[in-house]
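One thing: can you check what follows?
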Amino acid sequence: MLNFKQLHHFWNVARAGGIVRASERSGLAPQTLSGQIAILEASLGVSLFRRRGRGLALTETGQMVLDYAEEIFRVGSELEEALHNRAAGRAIPFRVGIADVVPKAIAWLLLAPSMKLAEPVRIVCREDKMVRLLGDLAIHKLDVVLADSPMPAHTDVRGYNHKLGESSISFFAAPSLAESLTGSFPANLVRQPMLIPGADAAVRRPLMQWFEEQHIAPHIVGEFDDAALMKAFGEAGVGVFPAATLIAEQVCHQHGVRCLGEASAVSEAYYAISVERRISHPATLAISRSGLEGAKRD
């Protein structure tokens, strides 16, 4: 069985970048740390470090073991914090990063199950570009990131994608603009002013492809990273705008607009991205189990 005390010594040495520095930080003798790591390597049957000049560098296997150790001790720290909060009667903190391209109404649907747990949760939401949120996720400033696409393959962050659901896209317009449209959907979109999501939105490419397939050359009058701002312009009658069909009723009620039709071939997916292979935070677990459709039914 894995000796977690030895693993913890390895973790400290790897993070410190060498045995001497780890010894200074921990107060343990270098010989003690070196001996414990040697025992761990022998029990695992692998080499975790290799000599590099006067210091040590992780082997490929050592890097893999470090990744697991990071996850093990992070989960242990979260467990300790959760137990401490429970004993003190305090709410469990749930730190969520929301990519700025995710509609706020969708974010609420995704997060709603976390607010219904038996144990109280104190949710802290931060909205930003996905790349910056992933950076904070990597250093454990966030518990989860909600996004409209999986984590980019080229990123250096070690994380896992958990798909929560998807929705087709519908088009909306203020009554004054809707009444001026002639013909049936989607032909009535031809030559109409169009508001579209910004380049960072995952739905942007399939949306433009759908326009091309439908022989609609959109007259784009605005591009928006913020979906709420796009809807505000649409509400003012500036142009037709797309939004998730799942929240069509809410969009119409909140912004006083009309639904023109659904582009069923265009869909937008939503993901929870975590650094955990197996989710342990109770709030993240709640939203992953419920998913978008489950949250909508609730």
